[in-house]
RNA sequence: GCUCUCGUGGUGGAAUUGGCAGACACGAUGGAUUUAGGAUCCAUUGCGAAAGCGUGCAGGUUCAAGUCCUGUCGAGAGCACCA
């Protein structure tokens, strides 16, 4: 059978759509399987091969589950708010709505042409009013529950995009969208209190099945640390200085203190501090440095001693100096530290540079060379002397601090509250009204969605205010509480808002009374398997887990953790081994591949090319290899006769069913396909197979290359879709061989192989091995020290 | 700098988790077919003439190490002075 893939593939795509083969049903009596892939941002460039790989994994799993009788929800949608569309709209003077619709139409066409088995009746678009109504609704619930607050603070600001960015969006001091240097700017910012959920997000990781590196990244991001808060008395002023430390055991070694340049204690004591001008100048210098510069200069410590105020070490009563330095951040802990140069590398560098005393309090290092951060016996520490472990010393010190009433245990997180507003047009308007009498008031629930007003000019203002601020009819309103003239908030939500709950909407996407019905949520949640990119592990996933935990706490969803399992696909690199990019000219367009080789080949190739989780370069020749494989499949019906099979081939079928079934579950799609290739080679060598065997082969291949499988299935006289046929079962007994070849080693070196029965005893196997000529040659005249037989594996004879 | 992951043929990658290293595929070489090219089919393909040697390098544990341990070099990812 030679076939024209273009005709055949579009034929089956049409039939699937007409018969609604892949629509999830609301038959809640069936076992469910909810497979989720990260919905795409509909960029103007269209689909990328990376999308194909990202979706093909769970595509295979979903198709297998349907064949196993599950009610499968495998949805798709579009995460369409965001800067690229808005920037394009500004540049071309087209409304972002029009741009978005066009891009979504293009993506839809492309996705359908690859034959993904998405449930197209549940498509969502985060920019639709019927969708963002509920994004705003959830925000309002958070507002009602005290999880939203506004503060004027120094924030990460991108001067190019003219927006405030969250910490997550400004990693490395660069804007996540345009890669410009971030500056620190004082602005009014809306925050979501994600830190309140830090422990829940951390604990939740214990009950989910995420890849280990994904869990680790989330743990590091949340960055919980246990330590102590301690109050240091000051000389020269009335205040106390509160610090956070994880090493209160080293307090006898604290020979100075450091506070952040912005620490409020400086402002408060301007009149007392003798060198205030010098401190002001230093502070100004620090603010001029971008975050990037600050991190580049980690080696070179700078700072200024505060003249006029000293601190008292509460452990030993000694007076110690206080410095300001930018290696202490206002945003973590209390913005002040006790510095223990003998046992902290940063404090050590600082002390060396400023000539401060270094007192060793833990044995084990050499303080002439550097700080010692390991464990050891406590010395020079009064009541701690002689204690051998860090834990014991910390406990003892905490007890001391409690007795004196100057300190207590404390917990800190690296994660900060989520800066949630953007000064942009193409996002969900924040449903808040500023009233001169009532302060911040939520837009009433019945008025949601708060619609994005029509606008001609989408450019943000020079002062960094939202384009919405220019529309008086939008801004001016009445306070819902007191009726007084009031003003609307004009900032919009960040790109991450819509994607924080989209998997809930898929459960019941057309509901206009609730974001999803309780019954549908109860049935479909949690997501059984979520696959996506590593780049979303610390942002999208943390954000959406936070929203979900919140919804769970207010009784809106039935489970606390939204994703039972999470995997991640590796990148597809360009043929040159570099990351694909337009500037390098190494981008592969998936639709070109479909045109030349067909969708089945594209699908097989992205899964066969290598380990699913690893980055793998594109290889055009290897694509042709996959084409060859499918061409050989197409001619299989020519040799499928009704005649009996052989026991060997039958056994191979059972083994292959077992291997393909388990490999799909383990995301080892490459070896699953390799197993099918091996079986095909065996069939070709033999020259024939039965029609029943061919049907099994087609079913196994169907999740990977469904179009050609449907075509062959139909040619065999089947009336129904192979996509809905039953997944093949295997007989464990038939996967086992009666006789197997095992290796024979002498002193661990392979000498020969022998055929033994699986039931053979150690004595039988060894006897057989010792009859082998090559083995005899190796052991002749030598003394046998030890004989090992691992059933089914190996014989090893140790001789001297 | 810290944390994590990974180093296997000419290439992408396998290896039931300590048990015959190199499955499967690409590429290459030779042959068949063809006017020719392409496509297809057959054979060979880790290195070495061979005994042997081979999983970045150096040690170690073990009857047995790609797999475990120690050190070291290299690549990638994440974090970025987190007290």
Summarize the helices and strands and which ones pair or pack.
Blueprint: H1 5-19, E1 32-37, H2 49-67, E2 71-73, E3 77-78, H3 83-92, H4 96-114, E4 124-125, H5 129-144, E5 148-158, E6 163-165, E7 183-192, H6 198-204, E8 209-210, H7 212-222, E9 224-235, E10 240-245, E11 256-259, H8 264-268, H9 276-288, H10 291-296, E12 304-312, E13 319-324, E14 336-339, H11 345-354, H12 390-404, E15 407-413, E16 418-419, E17 432-435, E18 439-442, H13 472-475, E19 476-478, E20 485-488, H14 502-505, H15 518-524, E21 529-532, H16 540-553, E22 565-568, E23 572-573, H17 590-597, H18 599-608, E24 616-617, H19 620-634, E25 640-641, H20 647-665, H21 669-686, E26 689-690, H22 691-701, H23 706-715, E27 739-746, E28 749-757, H24 762-771, H25 773-779, E29 784-790, E30 794-799
Parallel strand pairs: 1-2, 1-21, 3-4, 8-22, 11-13, 21-22, 23-24, 25-26, 27-30
Antiparallel strand pairs: 5-6, 5-7, 7-16, 9-10, 9-12, 9-15, 11-14, 12-13, 17-18, 17-20, 19-20, 27-28, 29-30
The structure holds one RNA strand of 83 nucleotides.
Description:
With 800 residues, the protein is an alpha/beta fold. 35% of the residues lie in helices and 19% in strands. The chain has 25 helices and 30 strands. Helix 2 packs across helix 18, helix 17 crosses helix 18 and helix 20 (647-665) packs antiparallel against helix 21. The longest helix is centred in the first third of the chain and has 19 residues, at 49-67. The mean pLDDT is 91. It binds one RNA strand of 83 nucleotides through helix 7, strand 10, helix 10, strand 14 and helix 11.
